[in-house]
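Backbone-to-sequence.
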């Protein structure tokens, strides 16, 4: 199938070689007119995936339902009939990032903003009262009615009162807010941190700070959990991308290094991760549909589909691994399990790191 009108001239525009038919026999460029209708810019992209005897659909069919088949074909040198691994991965990544970005965002945002205004004004009042009281005591001390120790003692008393008032305030207005190490705001947290000289508290301070910021924005425990989970899910495709070379590295480590090159493991990884991205995308689309439908039987069906796809994505790895690295069954199963554990652990650590970073960037 051609992408555009063929040129009447028979000299290749790319290399100057004589072109008898559609493609240049020397460099392979198609001898089409240099300018095409505008829409060709876009249809070309889609056609790239769909022409060549259904190259794209054949690739997708094997990728989804024949674990390991594409990798085997590619390593055996049968490449023309399928979409090349990197191209496939990039195209699927594009879909995996683009489609979820079209989903509507959380409806409760407006409600949160309203609460936000209310709480900030209350808190500001509290802080103003607090600092006014401290200033008055300093003033009395300056006039000589109080010794520094006495004024210090009173200030501390006032602070304690304010804190407990704060606590009440949080209990009433933000039911279900977590306490972190028994504290409900960053001031309390900081004083606990300096008092206990705790390294753990010091390490966790940015997270605590972020958490208190979110509660002060009027988010309750459930909303923060939901936000956290959302960030986590968003992070999976990014984590996979970073993890690609490591996954291939572990494959390399666990297999015969003379028989298999790092290159082969790279192909296997690209294919498996392409598959994973598609299943994550399907899961997210299902979840989105599930949220917009409130009908228990359908919700149960969605849950069921979810479980099936998740289990399939895991089993897929073992089938693909066995098909590509076929050695004695017991050995591939053992290697498969070890690889699965190592990688599950590795991806989990990477994800936690990324989630920590993105949690700090929630706004
Ligand atoms: Zn040419």
């Amino acid at each position: 199938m051609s992408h555009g009108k063929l040129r009447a001239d028979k000299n290749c525009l790319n290399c100057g070689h004589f072109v008898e038919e559609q493609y240049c026999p020397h460099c392979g460029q198609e001898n089409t007119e240099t300018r095409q209708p505008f829409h060709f810019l876009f249809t070309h992209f889609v056609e790239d995936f769909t022409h060549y005897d259904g190259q794209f659909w054949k690739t997708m069919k094997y990728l989804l339902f024949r674990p390991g088949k594409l990798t085997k074909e590619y390593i055996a040198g049968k490449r023309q009939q399928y979409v090349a691994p990197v191209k496939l991965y990039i195209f699927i990544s594009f879909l995996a990032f683009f489609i979820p970005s079209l989903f509507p965002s959380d409806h409760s945002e407006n409600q949160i903003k309203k609460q936000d205004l209310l709480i900030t004004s209350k808190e500001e009042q509290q802080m103003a009262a607090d600092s006014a009281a401290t200033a008055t005591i300093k003033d009395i001390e300056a006039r000589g009615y109080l010794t520094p120790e006495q004024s210090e003692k009173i200030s501390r008393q006032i602070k304690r009162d304010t804190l407990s008032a704060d606590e009440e305030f949080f209990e009433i207005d933000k039911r279900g807010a977590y306490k972190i190490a028994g504290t409900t705001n960053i001031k309390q947290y900081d004083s606990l941190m300096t008092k206990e000289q705790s390294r753990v508290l010091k390490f966790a301070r940015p997270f605590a700070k972020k958490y208190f910021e979110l509660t002060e924005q009027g988010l309750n425990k459930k909303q923060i959990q939901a936000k956290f989970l959302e960030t986590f899910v968003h992070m999976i495709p990014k984590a996979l991308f970073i993890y690609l070379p490591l996954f291939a590295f572990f494959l390399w480590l666990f297999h015969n290094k003379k028989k298999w090159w790092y290159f082969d493991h790279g192909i296997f990884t690209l294919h498996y991760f392409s598959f994973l991205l598609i299943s994550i995308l399907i899961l997210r689309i299902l979840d989105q549909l599930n949220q917009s439908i409130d009908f228990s039987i359908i919700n149960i069906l969605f849950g069921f589909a979810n479980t099936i796809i998740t289990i399939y994505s895991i089993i897929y790895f073992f089938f693909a691994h066995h098909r590509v690295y076929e050695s004695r069954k017991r050995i591939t199963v053992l290697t498969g399990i070890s690889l699965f554990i190592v990688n599950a652990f590795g991806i989990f650590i990477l994800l936690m790191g990324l989630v920590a970073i993105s949690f700090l960037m929630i706004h």
